[in-house]
Structure formats: C-alpha cells, structure tokens
C-alpha cells in the first residue's frame, strides 16, 4: 500500500518542455494547472498524503518528478537523467526525498544515465528499459543498488518508446497493460496481458494506487478492458502533459 506521493507544480515554462509530440501543439498552462490539481485529487482519493513541491521555472520538465528518483520501501535512488537539461532537477528533489528517507539514499553517477520512467516494478523485480534516456551503465548501477536490498532486476531494450512505462503498466493480480513494441514481449510472458489498441496506446501508462487504477481520460476501449477485470477506475485528463511527452506515472513519486 502506498502512503505518500511527491508532486511538483508545473511551471509556466512547461510550454517549452522536451517533446517528440510537437504535432499536438504547445501546452495550455492554465489548463495544465487545472489538470494537475485534479491529478492530485485522484491520488488523495486513493488515500495518499501529498507533498506538493513548488514550480521550477528553470526546468520546464520538472513536474515529471518520477524520472529523477526511484523510491522503494527500503531505499531511495536519485537518478541521472539522460536529458541533459533535466539533470539539475535531481538536486532540486533531493531535500524532499531526504525528508522521508533520511540517510537511506543512493545515487546514479556518470557516465550512467537513468530515468525512472524506464523502471517498472512488479513485486520485488524491477524491469529497466534501455532507451534514449537510460543506458546500460545506468541499468547496471541500478541493478547493483537494488541487489543490496534483496531485489532483482533485468533489462529490456526499447526501439520505439521514450520510456519503458510509456508502453507498459502493472495493475494487480498478474495483469499488465501493454502496447506497441511491448505486446507479447518475452520479458512479460508470465503475466496476463491486456493489449492496448494502437489508437489508444497512450492509455498504456496508467497507475495502480491502493487498488484503484488511475488512467488517462477519453480512452474507452482501455477503460472497458480494465473495468471488465473488476478494478475501480478514476479517469484524469492529462492532455496538456501529453503534449510534452508526459504520462500519468511521470507526474508523481508514489511510496
């Protein structure tokens, strides 16, 4: 069960965030603030205490806090983003993480790069996506750090997706959502796959929070598939974050 979440208020500079989705247009900042507020409400509805950090004008992507830290029940690991413009965000999040983890904090060091959007935890195993943002050295450092706490980990090479969790989410009861290049991937052969229609692949990035699935709004096929399994659902509109390659999981650290 999660008890806490850390989020960061989007900055007006969000409109200049990194994106491969320029065809969607620039984010509407006031609408992004409204959507972020509703996202926080959804987390609170699931029983989490929310630590809301202030906006960082110098870091347009800083509201995507998931990428700069990996939080487990035993330790916190500060990452080293593959996007150079985001590396300063790690220092900005450190004090907030330390408030919860005290001295139980480790770091990823160069030449490694690692963004936690590439890290999917299923029980006590961590799947690490090798992507444009996370390299082999980053994965190896993370595997070694996790092993000290008794966790196991493995890597998955990505060809299409920005992050591993762009295309896969773990729900519960051995169910996973998968899309694109991760459909029928051998790494997930032991799980019951819910295959996401190509037109709804953005909905592959959901978060399971204390028994409830929080999913992006306006993806009816995915909603129907999840509902059929009996999981409660909260839909949240995150259209403005999608414009800068952000998904539901990116917007919070849940622990």
What does it look like?
Helix content is 22%, strand content 24%. The chain has 255 residues and is α/β, with parallel strands linked by helices. It has a 3-stranded mixed β-sheet, with helices on one face. Helix 4 (220-227) links the parallel strand 13 and strand 14. It is globular. It starts with a strand and ends with a strand.
- For the termini, the CA-CA separation is 8 Å
Give the number of DSSP strands: 15
Fraction of residues in β-strands: 15-25%
Mean pLDDT: 98
CATH class identity: Alpha Beta
Spatial order of the strands in the main sheet? 2-1-15
Features:
alpha/beta; 3-stranded mixed sheet; 255 residues; L-arginine/glycine Amidinotransferase, Chain A
Nutshell version of this structure?
By secondary structure, this protein is α/β, with parallel strands linked by helices. The chain is built from five helices and 15 strands.
Write the layout of secondary structure elements.
Elements: E1 4-8, H1 29-45, E2 49-53, E3 69-71, E4 76-78, H2 89-101, E5 105-107, E6 119-122, E7 125-130, H3 136-148, E8 152-157, E9 168-170, E10 175-178, E11 192-195, E12 207-209, E13 212-216, H4 220-227, E14 233-236, H5 239-242, E15 253-254
Parallel strand pairs: 1-2, 4-5, 7-8, 10-11, 13-14
Antiparallel strand pairs: 1-15, 3-4, 6-7, 9-10, 12-13
């Amino acid at each position: 069960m999660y008890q806490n979440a850390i989020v960061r208020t989007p900055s007006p500079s969000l409109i200049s965030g990194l994106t491969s989705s320029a065809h969607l247009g620039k984010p509407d900042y006031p609408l992004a603030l409204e959507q972020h507020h509703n996202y926080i409400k959804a987390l609170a509805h699931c029983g989490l205490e929310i630590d809301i950090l202030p906006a960082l004008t110098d870091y347009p992507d800083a509201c995507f806090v998931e990428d700069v830290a990996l939080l487990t029940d035993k330790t916190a690991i500060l990452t080293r983003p593959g996007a150079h413009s985001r590396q300063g965000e790690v220092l900005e999040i450190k004090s907030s993480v330390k408030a919860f983890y005290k001295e139980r904090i480790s770091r990823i060091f160069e030449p490694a790069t690692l963004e936690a959007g590439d890290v999917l935890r299923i029980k006590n195993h961590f799947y690490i996506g090798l992507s444009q943002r996370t390299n082999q050295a980053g994965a190896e450092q993370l595997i070694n750090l996790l092993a000290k706490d008794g966790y196991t980990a493995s890597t998955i090479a990505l060809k299409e997706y920005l992050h591993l969790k762009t295309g896969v989410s773990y729900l519960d009861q051995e169910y996973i959502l998968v899309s694109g290049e991760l459909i029928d991937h051998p790494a997930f052969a032991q799980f019951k796959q819910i295959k996401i229609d190509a037109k709804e692949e953005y909905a592959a990035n959901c978060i399971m929070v204390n028994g409830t699935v929080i999913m992006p709004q306006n993806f009816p096929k995915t909603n129907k598939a999840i509902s059929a399994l009996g999981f409660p659902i909260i839909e949240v509109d995150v259209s403005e974050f999608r414009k800068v390659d952000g998904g539901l999981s990116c917007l919070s650290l849940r622990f």
